[in-house]
Amino acid sequence: MTTTIPALGLGTYGRTGEEGLAALLAALELGYRHLDTAQSYGTEENVGEAIRRSGLPRDEVFVTTKVADTNLSRADFAPSVRQSLDTLGLDRVDLLLIHWPSERDQVPFEDYMTALGQAKAAGQTRLIGVSNFPIEHLKRARALLGEDALATNQVEIHPFLQSPTLRDFARSIELPLTAYQPLAKGSVGENETLREIAAGHGVTPAAVALAFLLAEGHIVIPASGSRANLEANLRARDLKLRPEEIDAVRRLDRGERRIDPEKSPRWDD
Ligand SMILES: NC(=O)c1ccc[n+]([C@@H]2O[C@H](COP(=O)([O-])OP(=O)(O)OC[C@H]3O[C@@H](n4cnc5c(N)ncnc54)[C@H](OP(=O)(O)O)[C@@H]3O)[C@@H](O)[C@H]2O)c1
After folding, report:
1. Which of 36, 61, 198, 231 lies 20 to 30 angstroms, CA to CA, from 105?
2. What CATH architecture does domain 10-156 belong to?
3. Mutate to test the pocket of ligand 1, among 8, 13, 153, 163 (most ligand atoms within 8 A of CB)
4. Any idea what DSSP says for residue 102?
């Protein structure tokens, strides 16, 4: 059984319909063993179906889903988790996240964080965590649920948004960050520094970006609908960057946040 979060997972945003299912099946065939879905992506059904069609034992695939910010209230939280499990066709997920904190505490923080802990206690998930949580929210969560309660905080991180303040805090409390949109939606492919490093290793700039994030201690969940890109991205697991290459990628940070909806909390970086 997978007891920790596999460091390189697959984002499933947008992988709906037959085409999406084919991409998920290709990923499992290539060796991906961690699928990241959410109530709001419309991909929970495909994730469950891909696992069943792959023939892989359930315990070999790590599944994350996220409770939408529209389902955080006491009345909606638990039914939404039951609905996720039904849609996935699974008895439990491996990781359940709060997708976004409630905007301006419209739903009391204690209500949904307590409900998250209860989902774990009920065996609906093995691990719990959060997403899009700044430091202040992480501190509140730890005070409420305990210092070791959270398995990860999933946030936007890529070479152009390295979030040093949040990164250093997370390190200080030994909380792994999961880097979403780790390829900056594919734009890492156009960066000259990444291209040069990639050429030296015979890999793609995307693999360099992922290897850098893994070296920083992050979990990564790149997405792709292309078999060639899925395969190329997996190569990041075996790619060891030299210290000077890591330094060069660190210098690419320019605070470029791509996902910043109105409901966002006040970011640390
Ligand atoms: N928690 C949250 O609030 C949150 C927010 C956003 C995303 N996420 C999660 O993070 C996952 C990843 O984020 P994302 O899908 O937005 O962005 P991403 O992984 O940074 O980028 C995906 C894009 O990059 C392209 N790409 C993939 N591999 C490539 C390669 N080797 N070379 C060139 N281009 C490549 C893909 O195109 P092709 O399909 O053509 O390969 C796709 O257009 C999502 O699927 C979702 O699971 C979470």
Report:
1. 36
2. Alpha-Beta Barrel (3.20)
3. 13
4. P
